[in-house]
Automatic annotation (TrEMBL), chain A:
Record keyword Cell membrane present: yes
Protein name: Multisubunit potassium/proton antiporter, PhaC subunit (TC 2.A.63.1.1)
Keyword annotations from UniProtKB, A to Z: Cell membrane, Membrane, Transmembrane, Transmembrane helix
Keyword Lipoprotein found: no
From TrEMBL, chain B:
Domain of life: Bacteria
InterPro entries assigned: CPA3_Na-H_Antiporter_D, NADH_UbQ_OxRdtase, ND/Mrp_TM
UniProt subcellular location: Cell membrane; Membrane
UniProt signal peptide: none
Topology in membrane: Multi-pass membrane protein
GO molecular function, one term: NADH dehydrogenase (ubiquinone) activity
Protein family: Belongs to the CPA3 antiporters (TC 2.A.63) subunit D family.
Swiss-Prot/TrEMBL keywords: Cell membrane, Membrane, Transmembrane, Transmembrane helix
GO cellular component: plasma membrane
Gene Ontology BP annotations: ATP synthesis coupled electron transport
Protein name: Multisubunit potassium/proton antiporter, PhaD subunit (TC 2.A.63.1.1)
Amino acid sequence: MELTLAIGIGVLTGSGVWLVLRPRSYQVIIGLSLAGYGVNLFIFSMGRLRVNAPPVLAAGGPIDPTLYTDPLPQALVLTAIVIGFATTALFLVVLLVSRGLTGSDHVDGREP
Amino acid sequence: MELGDHLLIVPIVLPLVTAALLLLFDERRHILKATIGTLSTLALAGVSIALLAMMSSGTGPESVAYLLGDWPAPFGIVLVLDRLSAMMLVTASLLAVAAQLFALARWRNSGPHFHSLFQFLLMGLSGAFLTGDLFNLFVFFEVMLAASYALLLHGSGAVRVRAGLHYIAINLVASFLFLIGVSLIYSVTGTLNMADLAGRVAGLSPDHRSLLEAGTAILGIAFLVKAGMWPLCFWMPGAYAAAAAPVAAVFAVLSKVGVYAVFRLSPLLLGVDAGSSAGLPDLMLLVGGLATVAFGMIGVLASQALARLAAFSIIVSSGTLLAAAGMADVATTAGALFYMVSSTFTIGALFLLIELVERAQDPAANVLAVTSELYGDDEGEDVAEVGIAIPATLAILGTCFALCGILVAGLPPFSGFLGKFALLSAALGAGGEGAIRPAAWSFLALVILSGLFAMVAMVRAGIRIFWAPMEPIVPRVRVIEFAPVAILLGLCVAMTVGGGPLMRYATATAEALHAPAAYIDSVRATARVTAGDDR
């Protein structure tokens, strides 16, 4: 499972970085989104990978922490997803405005 | 808990509430919006000064922690006020007052929701200075950045949109690096509280330690992008030069947030108590800082447009500060802190002044100035003008410009000189008697050369604007636009007069930064307010 996840993060981040370096603004925003997914998965995996272990404690009775997974990275990843989503949406607006003002979808606003 | 203890959270809550409140009013009620926004910014400055007075009284504790949600330190989120954060809060809020007043004249009209965005920016800034938790530092960074994205675009126009596109893309990537760094640090230490982290670094096993070092390095890149260290600073001149004048003035403190994070975290995480990781970032910061100064001063000299000159001055001051952070001793840090406040005010004033001066320029006669097209959007002139025009405009503007030049270059007698002098004398004295390190020599040479380059560039610009034109076009400058420049330059003069007490405060701050045990203990020992174990 570790290998699968590592390859997944690697492919997402790698394609994200490649796309961010492309000259078209649409490619850049897709690249940013992909890199964002890679980063979110990375944060998630930093709480160590566990199968069938809940992050939220059950009510009542003594608690055995070994039966639970670390809840904190899951909370962090939620925050990161929300912030990433909002800033990407903002970037999309700026991208559309730039396309409208300059008539070009090159990131510099003009063809090289 | 007394009411005064809650003062610590006011710099975050006040702008947040004001910004939300301002959203409720229609754009047409701009006098009401401007009044509320200005009052809130003034109140923020008042609270910051009160907090600074609390920290500088000398009788109180070194740092005060505020438990949000009343959970004790490593488990809950804390805000921590110490000398450094109080100083940064005051710097940011005073600069904000000046920018806010400047915006009242004209700039608030050139786009919607200026005041709300401005308050959100202040909230992010205050939060970043006050938080004692790495992940919240990320959240407040994002609040600040999101507001700054929109403010950069304020006034619109193709140049701003293009600069904004680059600015947002760079900062999004930097945020990803921030997250990767934070999560790597969490994975090996199991905590995000800065004080708790500092206590755990020394006890890490070697394989965990290398992960921690990788994590802090990645985190550092995120801060250095913000601070504008070469080679991560190519986005900066374009973005800062494109921003509207009051926005660019506040951006002068935005780059200092990255520098603040470096000053805060490198002694805390990788300081003297960090075992074999101690001093890890120092060489990198020193070399990177010196390269930044070199790059910035060439940029200063090569700039045709005044706004780019000011933006490159920010890069020079960031580089100076980062190199000083790399020296990692108490005296250099103290000098750097003094210089940081002085250069923030100076460059803020310069950005505001440039807008006033460039108004006098005939765009056709100034083809070389790359950004002159920026000010083609002067249709704002026909809106109701606020305040009265000042007499003897050119003489006053010229005097202010000369003052800015002296401050940026660091010539005596003003605070720019005091800051650089404190830095250089500390750097030369660091190696002990008679042994001056090569690093100190190159630092000395670059700082003095960068001052010379700044002076040359400022004099050249001054001649072009105030001297050369046979019949200078006198710009129409209102009191409300000139007052902020006078306030900021007045603060620099006040820093010169009060140099002794301020330097003592900076030295105490630097001592506390390099001996973080008191900070760590005070955060860990802060007790819950409510008694009982019912949780």
